Queue: 2 jobs
Job 1
Amino acid sequence: MTETSNQVPEDKVSIEIDGQTVLADKGSMIIHATDAHGINVPRFCYHKKLSIAANCRMCMVDVEKAPKPLPACATPVVDGMKIYTRSKRATSGQKNAMEFLLINHPLDCPICDQGGECELQDVAMGYGRDVSRFVEGKRSVADEDLGSLVASDMTRCIHCTRCVRFLNEIAGTDELGGIGRGDRTYIATAIGQGLDSEMSGNIIDLCPVGALTNKPFRFKARAWELMATAGLSMHDALGSNIYYHTRHGKILRAVPRENESINEAWLSDRDRYGIHGLNNDQDRVTQPMVKQSGQWNVITWEQALTILADKLKDTAAEEVALYTGQHTTSEEYFLLKKLFDQLGSDQHEHRLSTVDFSASFQAPRTEVSLADVAEQKQIIMVGCYARHEQPILNHKIRQAWLNGAEVNAFGPCHFEQNFDLKLDITGHQMDWVKKLGSLALSLAEISGRKPDGALGDWLQQQSADEDINSLAKSLLKNDHKTLFILGQISARHPQAQLIKALVEWMAPLVDASINQVLDGANSMGAALNGLYNDQDIKRNDHAVNLIYQAEIQDFAEPAKIKECLVNSEMTVVFNAFCDEALKSRADLILPIALLPETSGSLINNYGQRQDALVAHKAPGDTKPGWRVLRVLGNILGFDGFEYEDVHEVMQETEQLKSLPTPVPVAIKEIDAYKAKGLVLYAHHGIYDGDALVRRSRPLQESKLATADTVYVNPGDLLSIGFEAGDLVSVEQNGRYAELTLATDEAVPTGSAVINMGRLSTLNINAGELSVSIIGAQS
Amino acid sequence: MFQIVNPQNTEKTHLDLLTDETKATIDYWLKKYPHEQRRSAVLGALHAVQDQNGGWISTELMAAVSEYIDIPLVWVREAAEFYSMFHTQPVGRHKISICTNISCMLRGADKVVKYAEDKLNIKLGQTTEDGRITLVMEEECVAACTGAPMMIIDGHYHENLTEETIDEILGGLE
């Protein structure tokens, strides 16, 4: 006895479960030990990622010397504890809990959407009686409309409170609560306005019964009819791991595939419901088409690729340009680059959302891994609304905040956060950059070091206030983990290089790291393949423009790209969707498959390469992009396009060398931006980012969807001369967008916030900051 | 189980609904608890707003309490809907709670309920048309078993009820 206890490490205790001696962490619960050793204990309310509630009483186990069965989830292990999970007393406790839970639960599994994948059903099979002894009336609970994403059937609720705890602890929105008492308790929101969280769909997976189910998927299929295919999310640069559930080659829903280094057990709503865009066939293209004397004619792939190859042969190489979206597979990027290299053109660009091309291309900085973001002690978000840019990154920032980290933000708007910001420094698009400059100035003054050249001169024109000075002091003092997060608002900013230079100068001074939030699911892959140009290729006119997996809405300067396409001889669209805005400017349309319909690899924001499999059957004559590019390469007679299988291309992309370590941006001169009228902030809504989410009806009907609106500060209404709710024209350099005027205190004075990525704002370029609001229509 | 782990209401649009007296009462309760456990002050606060509002708590007042204490609104609603002492629907001038717990039940509480319902021509949970009396939905044991059956009217205990005493007591209510 003494001998064995000597071998137990200090942080462990030795316990016995069903006669098997195991080590368990001191202070951990019995259920942690049984789970770690594959011993099954039934449970409903316990979830490894949530706090312990111990209210379902299902996980009863028999502990030696304890007078009654104890809940495994809430009983800490003690050295020498003897636990029996299958003894008569344990199983009788479990059976009684089961019978109690089933008293008010409807026994109509065949009509319940959860039937077949229900934890209650599974456990009832193991622990329940075959016939109910309960003959009295059961309770019923009225359902609440929780919005377009989550369906509720509250009569089925067993009050495990996993959903309540998720929204409290993980989502941070505290939207659901247990209302009432005893058998009349029900789960509801405070005021019946539905759910607001960008992660709300996770409560569907957490719900052990059919009380909360996936609304768009409801009654569409049974679990046993579905096949799971491992896939990747394509809506942000994290590559959250997904299982696509398919039937007859069609994706019916997406659920999280656990990956502790990325999405843990969660999925953002965008990643869960984005797939519903696939079923929107309104402007899906399914056959190659060519525009001949103003008419669209369906043609064969052979004809289409011959037309394209002939045109490419007849055109000078530098007259051919490629704009590619940022969620395409690395394999397609690889073949595109190969094609352009042999064509002899370097006019290719994947950074569609960038407007500042004043410095040469640099590899993106991601110095802290996603999981380690949660370990940071000081986080400064620079032009970043992580909650909408990368919901899972925001979850990690929130975890850091819960662990005591201080979070500060600089940006063009007060965004709604699920953590507290120590400082939320806002100003219109030019102002907040100056305020960031004043932080650098304050750091320079305190430390006695100063950046050289134009940046140093520009800093001298800024002035720091007390808040900024105290932030600078705390940054200099700290000897703990500090992280600057450069968000997409910074990346899309007309002064993006200045913002980056400021952060790159400050970070080493305070011993901080820098993470850039990348756009699209695979901009890292596009960068690795070299699909960029040091200049803004939109500034040159090209005879032939290839648009690959992108829509006009994906461009930060949609008005500019429209101009480019109109001025060209031929526009070729390689897309799954082609809406009127693009079609009216296209000459040749080639239908290619989107990510869940094709195989390939993606490289996420943190450099992790992941493979995705085909989960959805592409409609009509749609072909995977890599195959189309391979044939095009062959028709053109280029070398190295003899691939038989996508895996051969994947072997090539695995060999890609990583990008050289970025060097800090050298700022040569700083434009003194002067905006007339209001200063534009071209906002990207959470569900306006790519072709799929724009077409996903559940997302577009949810509360976070944007509208055709221009937001201003209420204080600016008087000088604008219109009322909130008026239909107005927003003018930018002689181009107009018709939008509804709205006010919001979160918008800084002098600023106009416009939702980009929508058809209503295709005339607005994010790079041109001066806008004015004119002429309300009657 | 649930920690205050989230940023709280930034927009405080309901605070004007609270009277100075109510605010003073809430402050009194807030002082009794550490800041991170300020949630505990919710019961005192709900009593104060209920008294201020003629015996019931509206959704707007729950919002005011959540803003004042700085806790999620749903927590206030949970507390208000949990306790039978809080009313979330308008009530009459007098609230009558008849105990139906075990001792009173053994001593004929059911008959008391039936007699009161018939006399007032309303059911438990309802208010008389003239807005005079509300029969509260349920009352758990209030430790007056020696005087069972009993009822509480506006916070005062009335014990050893008979049809005659009920007539007398109800008749005496304004």
Job 2
Amino acid sequence: MTSMSIHTIQYIAVIGSTCFLFFIMGLIHQKKIRENYSLVWLFFGGVFMVISLWRGSLELIAGMLGIAYAPAALFLLLLLAVISILIHYSIVISRQSETIVKLVQEVGLLKMAVNIKEAKPWKQ
Amino acid sequence: MKDKAFRVLAIVPAYNEEKTISEVILSIKQLDFGIDILVINDGSTDRTGMEAQKTEQALVVNLPANLGIGGAVQTGFKYALRNNYDIAFQFDGDGQHKALEIKKIIGPVMDSEVDVVIGSRFLKKHNGFQSTVARRIGIKIFEYLNMALIHQRITDNTSGFRAYNRKAIGFMADNYPTDFPEPEAVILIGKNGFRMKEVFVSMAARDQGTSSINGFRPLYYMVKVILSIFMCASRRRLR
């Protein structure tokens, strides 16, 4: 019974990881996420796929890190995934804010230039 | 001051300053040394832009969104750079800066004595407006930080009343900090080898409107600015 449930959870994990990877690929395919922003998702999707397929890997990681209870290593990995994705977002947001500032400045300057031209159309 | 004809631009950032903006513009225009005025209307929700336009004495950039003081002033630097101004100075749209003091801050730049001049309220004891106690404590903290980081004593790091020469304009057009830019800009200027000095100016308590730093924001302001200062000091020189 115990080995049955271990297998069951492994099947679920493999199916879950596969669905997740397909879901992300689907979003890229539909151009809902750009490739460069999806790489972090794909990377961690891949990591979880490996862990699901090769159960020993989790114990190996736990052993290397000195974690007595192997599933705790899974939580650590999950947390790492979430944190790195959030940091990645902060980077993307910061970059976009910078771009937006530049755009707003240019639009303001352009609008002024256009207004001046319209007010004095003879001064080409 | 030398007689050479300098092209001077006043960069006037304004956010919801409809009551003071025209007076500010006219006060600059009353001076006799032909200063061009560029008002940066930073996405105001009132009639600031229209009031400025109505004076017919200033060019008005209406930013389509509110960028905050840093982004607004940087727009002015970009304009100054592209239109070959020799000197640009910041002059706030809220009536805090006095037109009669302009000569003091652009003088040392005109004389090529320094690249950047900061108008300071704290160089002398006087009866003019010197801000509240809490703010002055904050300003003191910046003073000591700057002394440690760029080895130059700047007494009024939050003052926006500053003049820049052509070299500094070009640099600021690309590198002016966003959000709360003044103290960080001092580090940026010092670190990148510009010569800078302070001159004493008196300022008025703001006529209208409220400071952008109020309520719970002072704490956020201090933490954010101190972080920015350290980060700015730790980066490589940009020139």
